[in-house]
């Protein structure tokens, strides 16, 4: 599972992740260490800022500047029902 967000807003915007429980559930049988990638490509006039849902921790700069792309890896750190946790690691930005 992976995904891509194409953001082209006229102003900056907040992009909200699902909760950790929703991410773990969507992965169906995820074990600790399971990871998925998310690519954000921002063609808008302002920054796209990733906001963490419940149980999600962001590691790295949350904003993707205009005319930049950023890759995130979401890693399951707890898969116990009711205590799910995911850490999203920024792999940095690139200019396009």
Describe the structure.
This protein is mainly β and 96 residues long. It has one domain. The protein contains one helix and eight strands; from the N terminus they run E-E-H-E-E-E-E-E-E. A five-stranded mixed beta sheet has the order 1-3-7-8-5, with helices on one face. A three-stranded mixed beta sheet has the order 2-4-6, with no helix packed on it. A hairpin with a 6-residue loop joins strand 7 and strand 8. The radius of gyration is 13 Å and the shape is elongated.
Give the topology.
Layout: E1 2-7, E2 13-16, H1 20-27, E3 35-42, E4 48-51, E5 56-59, E6 63-64, E7 68-78, E8 85-95
Parallel strand pairs: 1-3, 2-4, 5-8
Antiparallel strand pairs: 3-7, 4-6, 7-8
SSE succession: EEHEEEEEE
Q: Helix content range of the residues, please?
A: under 10%
> How many strand elements?
8
- C-alpha geometry: elongated
Strand order of the biggest β-sheet: 1-3-7-8-5
Secondary structure class reads mainly beta
Biggest β-sheet strands, sense, barrel: 5 strands, mixed
Low-confidence regions = none
Q: Report how far apart the termini are.
A: 24 Å
Radius of gyration: 13 Å
What number is the mean pLDDT?
A: 95
What's the multimeric state? Answer: single chain
Structurally, the number of domains stands at 1
Query: Count of DSSP helices?
Result: 1
Could you tell me the strand content as a percent range? over 45%
């Amino acid at each position: 599972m992976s995904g891509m967000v194409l953001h082209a807003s006229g102003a900056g915007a907040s992009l909200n992740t699902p909760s950790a429980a929703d991410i773990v559930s969507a992965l169906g049988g995820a074990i600790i260490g399971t990871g998925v990638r998310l690519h954000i490509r921002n063609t808008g006039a302002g920054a796209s800022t990733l906001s963490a849902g419940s149980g999600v921790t962001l590691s790295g700069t949350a904003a993707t500047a205009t005319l930049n792309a950023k890759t995130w890896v979401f890693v399951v750190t707890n898969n116990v029902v009711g205590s799910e946790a995911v850490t999203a690691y920024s792999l940095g930005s690139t200019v396009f």
